[in-house]
Each structure stands twice: as structure tokens, then as C-alpha cells.
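Ticket opened by: R.M.
Priority: normal
Category: complex prediction / small molecule

The reporter submitted a protein together with 5-O-phosphono-D-xylulose and asked that the result be attached to this ticket for the collaborator who will pick it up next week. Submitted input follows.
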Amino acid sequence: MAVQISPSILSADFARLADEAAAVPNADWLHVDVMDYHFVPNLTLGLPVVESLRKATSLPLDCHLMIEDPDRWAPAYAEAGAGSVTIHAEAAKAPVRTLRQIRSLGARAALALNPGTAVEPYEGLFGEIDMLLLMTVEPGFGGQGFLDMVLPKIRTARSLVERHGGEIWIQVDGGITTETIERVAEAGADVFVAGSAVYGAGDPSAAVDALRAQAETVTG
Ligand SMILES: O=C(CO)[C@@H](O)[C@H](O)COP(=O)(O)O
Ligand SMILES: [Fe+2]
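Result attached by the on-call engineer:
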């Protein structure tokens, strides 16, 4: 699978989101972190901002829901035009129903796992998902250091995904930089979220190109 880069607007200027989206025309997705002060100790944005962003950019929105009740809210993000909606396994009480609803509303359905959550117990959900998000930091904040301890889980996830036909994308999120991206690409990730490495750079678009080039040294 071709390398995909998803810049996270968590590290962008929230007062200038349309401009910040326009600054990364070479990205594959725009990663939107939704946080509710409950599932994670931080608060960001919700549906009204996603609805406005949808109109402000042609990049597909990759909505990462770090919220306590994703079963209640996830379908609305798909209805708002998100290209992909990710729910956390640690928060969802009815993941099968919710993932099916996301798909039936035309979005890609994804399941996220925190660094300490094993992937094997969720193999049974692989038929319901288009993407698996493996967090490479504890969710809640941008700019944290990459957790090497997640690398074996990425390798395990890659072999499980291949056993299921290889169609599920493996996304990584947290601490992805030109220093760390090779390691995660080598372990089997194909969709790379990067916040501070893109929006903390002087030229966000050049940062996207640099990340992609670095990942492609592994994937070819
Ligand atoms: O979901 C999250 C954080 O919980 C991320 O999407 C962050 O936005 C990643 O930021 P960096 O680690 O790339 O700075
Ligand atoms: Fe995220």
C-alpha cells in the first residue's frame, strides 16, 4: 500500500484552520482530533468545526474520536462528511453496531487502540473495519515522544491484517517524525499521522513531503 500522510490539526492554529488545511495540499488526509475532557484530559473541537472544515477543504477528514461515548456520536461525524471515523476500543460499548453505522453512512470505519491495549482480542472485529489505529503515544496531547514499545504490536497487527486479506490500513499516531517514521513503516504501518512534525515546521507542505520520502525509503 502506498504511504499516506495525515497531518493532525491539533498542532495547527485553531483560529486559522482553513488556511492550515490549505497549507498541506500534498497530504492524503487531514487528521482531526476530537477530545472531550473525559476519555482524555484535553478538550479540542466537535461536530460544528468538522462541518465547517468539510466546506473549507477538499482534503478528506480523518476524524479520531477520543471521547467517552463514541457509540452515540460517531455516526454524526460520518454524516458531517468525514472520510474516516475512528473510535477507541477502550471507549466503545457497542463497537460492531457503531462501526457498521459509520460504514453505512459512507465513511471508512476505524478502530483505535491505546499503547497498552493488545491487538489480538480485537481480531474478531477485523471484518468491520477499514483501518486500525495504533496509538504510539498516550492519547490527549500533541508533541509527545514516540513509544518504541508499540513497535512489536504494529508487527503483530501487520501479520493479523495480512491473514485477513491485507485490505485493512494500519495507521500510527503520536510522535511521528522524520526520525521515527522509518521504524513504524518497517514494522508495517501505512498511514502516518503527524501533528507537531508538520505544523511545527516552518513549511508544513515540505514537512509532509519529507515524511513521505522517509517512509518510502522502507516501503519502496
Ligand atoms: O491523537 C493525537 C494525540 O492524542 C494525535 O493525533 C496528535 O495530534 C499527534 O501529535 P504529534 O505527536 O504528531 O505531535
Ligand atoms: Fe489523533
